[in-house]
């Protein structure tokens, strides 16, 4: 239905870099179809990496979790923001320097493994504060971090994800906790390590020697923005945080190269569509059947065809100028397509 390679989208790339939460699994349960999708990539001999902003698990723990779900993985395939943050601090600070850790035990372990000394109180005069997601993080932790930063500690955030996905819906992420501390301090962290910063993606490429990686994620503001910043192609899957409504409203810095409902789009050309970005003229062209018109902030879809083909045209119309307030349908088939895309008809 689109311009992907005949054998599948993945055959255009020599490395696939997956986000985890919302792409491979939700919390600790695999997303339907994810196990089979990764297995098909392994069978094709495609190199794989996992890059996650979640700082609550170490690389080995993540690899064990994936393997337990039926997705074989090794620690060297997993890149976490916790490990990346610890490496950054190890390069900046002398061995054994005190680092106040706000986050889970995994982040403390990464700091210790990097040759630094994790502490919990500002009275220990830490040279740096590193802040990552942890379900037990509370006011007392933020208070100690605030005192340490005010005293001159270098402040590093593993990531600034505002939310994290769950089976019950989005929950507050590390970005929400970073925002609380930033409000108290009146400033932002000195450094953010995780996505949308491009470091994790670039590290994955360097580790594997890949020339053309593809980033697969569920969040426009982290996964896709990070890929755009790193100059890499990306696939947005609609199994996690960002939906089609978010996509239609996305600025150029958060627009993916491709969109699919799930990971089947990696190998099945009928399950993925290229979306226009103003630079790839004609890439998002859909088969005949759909007509999209725009009147101010209102977009109208009529005709019949594949919902993903309609999505490419909707993106083209939405990104052609100004924000979109309403997407409407002028036919029963169009209403069904908008329902499939989780847009009001």
TrEMBL record:
InterPro entries in UniProt: GNAT-like (IPR041065), HAD-like_sf (IPR036412), HAD-SF_hydro_IIA (IPR006357), HAD_sf (IPR023214)
Cited Gene3D superfamilies: HAD superfamily/HAD-like
Residue spans crossing the bilayer: none
PANTHER family, A to Z: 4-NITROPHENYLPHOSPHATASE-RELATED, D-GLYCEROL 3-PHOSPHATE PHOSPHATASE
Protein name, as recorded: HAD-IIA family hydrolase
Source taxonomy: Bacteria, Bacillati, Actinomycetota, Actinomycetes, Micromonosporales
All copies of domain GCN5-related N-acetyltransferase-like, residue ranges: 289-343
Pfam families: GNAT_like (PF18407), Hydrolase_6 (PF13344), Hydrolase_like (PF13242)
